[in-house]
Design goal:
Layout lengths: L6 H17 L13 E7 L10 E6 L6 E5 L11 E4 L7 E5 L2 H7 L15 H7 L9 H13 L9 H10 L14
Antiparallel strand pairs: 1-2, 2-3, 3-4, 4-5
Length: 183
């Protein structure tokens, strides 16, 4: 059973539903170009390495990367840690934001598809996320502009050190389950 949605996630889903109708598209896929293929409602079913006690609300569409929020005692209305799970990586789970507002702000300029690069090439990622994409496709740029306006998103600089600190702070909640035994 899905718990009551965090208010800011409800806002995201409402924005998706509103714009999807105008484009005759599904709310789940409307922000795909921005790296947010949404799970409406959030799901508890995901990859073997998704931490327990989270609900997945979006996927990037690449390598199984997905975003979840805590439903354990680490969460409050103003603090809802966001987990990025990267099934193909050596370390699968990282906290990328301490709230939905912080998460939204990370994707302010370019969306969320490349956020996993913060753990592969932090210097490149910090630069990439700091300015608008010069050659962004028109629909992606329009979708990001719509989200910034509808959700009143404020830019949050991507800082690798912040991601590492958040991951350490919430480490007890993001323990990767053991690899399933092979049949």
């Amino acid at each position: 059973m899905t718990p009551l949605l965090p208010a800011r996630l409800s806002d995201l889903f409402a924005a998706a539903k509103a714009v999807a109708t105008a484009f005759n598209c599904s709310p789940e896929g409307i922000f795909d170009p921005c790296g947010l293929i949404m799970d409406i409602p959030p799901s508890t079913e995901s990859y073997w390495c998704t931490p327990k006690g989270v609900h997945t609300f979006a996927r990037t569409g690449g390598d199984g990367v997905h975003y979840s929020y805590f439903t354990v005692d680490a969460s409050t209305e103003s603090v809802t840690p966001i987990v990025m799970t990267r099934p193909a990586a050596d370390i699968q789970n990282h906290i990328v934001a301490e709230s939905f507002d912080e998460f939204f702000g990370l994707g302010f300029h370019v969306g969320w598809f490349a956020l996993e690069q913060a753990f592969y090439d932090p210097v490149w990622a910090e630069a990439y996320f700091s300015t608008p994409e010069a050659d962004a496709k028109e629909f992606k740029a329009a979708a990001l502009d719509f989200l910034r306006t509808q959700l009143e998103i404020k830019y949050v600089p991507l800082q690798h050190a912040r991601l590492l600190a958040l991951t350490a702070k919430y480490a007890e909640y993001i323990a990767t389950p053991p690899l399933p035994s092979e049949a």
